[in-house]
Amino acid sequence: MREINVAMIGQGFMGRTHSNAWSQVRKFFKPPVEPVMHTTCARNPDASKAFAELWGWTNSSTDWRKAVAAPEIDLVDVVTPNNMHAEVALAAIAAGKHVACEKPIARTLEESRRMVAAAEKAGVKTFVWYNYRRCPAVALAHRMVKDGALGTIRHVRAFYLQEWADESIPLIWRFQKEGSGTGSHGDLNAHIIDMTRFVTGEEITEISGAIVETFIKERKLMTGATAGGIAAGVESGAETGPVTVDDAVLFLARFSGGAVASFEAARQATGNQNRNGFEINGSKGALKFDFERMNELQYYDATRPRGVQGWTTIMCTHGGDHPYAENWWPDAHVLGYEHGFTNQAYDILRVLGGEEPVVPLPDFADAHETQRVLEAAMLSAVERRPVPLSEVK
Q1: How many CB atoms lie within 10 A of CB 110?
Q2: 253: helix, coil or strand?
Q3: Is the Cβ–Cβ distance between 261 and 248 less than 8 Å?
Q4: CA angle 92, 95, 100 (to 5 degrees)
């Protein structure tokens, strides 16, 4: 079996999820090529070495440029904060490497354009970790829409609601435009934009209105690193600094097939820990998904006799009928957050081995379409007007 040497740039929360995926994928799947966890790279040499030893990387480094240029590396996996996505990806592409990049693809539309152009010119394979496509329930929704179960789509409602970013959380990079580009918008709306584009098979053509709000304007400065989660265990001092990104972004949109849509991203939506989902209504039926119940898909079949119509809960864990499920556990022995990443690692390896993925993978060009929607929504909020996507290249 041909080996694919992987270099992962960055560690932290996403480094853990990706490391777990690369270490687990061959235990549950049979990809056409074998991933080798060759090198992990971070700023602190002691932390990088400890991380490598814990998660099974053969080498550790603090020199990401050397790591991505090394001739033995085949795939560069970018899990840094957003401000490094473009720089690392462009260096890897210039070295002829395939690239898998965390979402959103970049901080800005201009960075995203450069990444797409470079990848197309070099002819390398690119992937973006929109991992929620790999939930069996979401992949099943995609398949059902494609097979015509919903008929003509008329309404799309999407939401990504979290509550973790209260006043106790210090000024981590996710609250600073320099590091992240945007706040809840790029972090959360990006996921539901990609997910609804994926499930419907349609593109967003216009942002009809948007609103942006930052509720917590100042936060305490960090005095130490996080303990591995989004903001777990981070310490702070008495001094404060300004928050330069959004806490919540809501916008209305139109899809290419004529549907109208609403999107909502929020980090202080009390009572919602990780409510990431959608409701899609069509002429023949409807679907609902909520990641807090990620193994379930709700389906309404409007073609049945009116007297017996109602929402059906599909437990998406049956091997052979639900994507990826046959590689995991028996029926209703449910999957969790980490499985989406392992499923995506498998699809990446399928593509690198010359096979088709189980369900479509977003490359840089695909992720750029989501980036265009993010940009159009911010333009709509700032300029208080509808923004057709034709204005945002």
Answers
A1: 12
A2: strand
A3: no
A4: 30
What's 26's domain CATH number?
A: 3.40.50.720
pLDDT for the residue numbered 223: 82
181 and 88 share one domain: no
- 10 Å CB burial of residue 313 (0-12, 13-18, 19+) is exposed
Same domain for 75 and 215, yes or no, is no
Q: Are residues 67 and 168 in the same domain?
A: no
Angle between helices 45-55 and 12-28 (to 10 degrees): 20
- Sorted by sequence, the CB contacts under 8 Å of residue 245 that are 6+ apart come out as 174, 175, 176, 177, 180, 181, 182, 183, 184, 185, 214
- Evaluate the omega torsion of the peptide bond into residue 71 and state whether it is cis, within 30 degrees of 0: no
Do 9 and 64 lie in one domain? The reply is: yes
> What is the structure's pLDDT at 179?
85
**Could you write out the DSSP letters of every residue in 37-77?**
EEEEE-S-HHHHHHHHHHHT-SEEES-HHHHHH-TT--EEE
What pLDDT is recorded for position 173? 87
Q: Which residues of the chain have pLDDT under 50?
A: none
Task: Calculate the dihedral angle through the C-alpha atoms of 87, 93, 99, 102, rounding to the nearest 10 degrees.
Answer: 20
The residue segments making up the domain with residue 391 are 152-280+364-393
Q: What is the pLDDT of residue 123?
A: 97
* pLDDT value at residue 235: 77
pLDDT at 224: 73
Q: What does residue 117 show for φ and ψ, rounded to 5 degrees?
A: -65, -45
- Dist CA 119 CA 85 (whole Å): 14
Q: Which residues of 130-146 are buried (b: 16+ CB within 10 A; e: fewer)?
A: bbbbbbbbbbbbbebbe
Per-residue pLDDT at 245:
96
Q: Is residue 293 part of a domain?
A: no
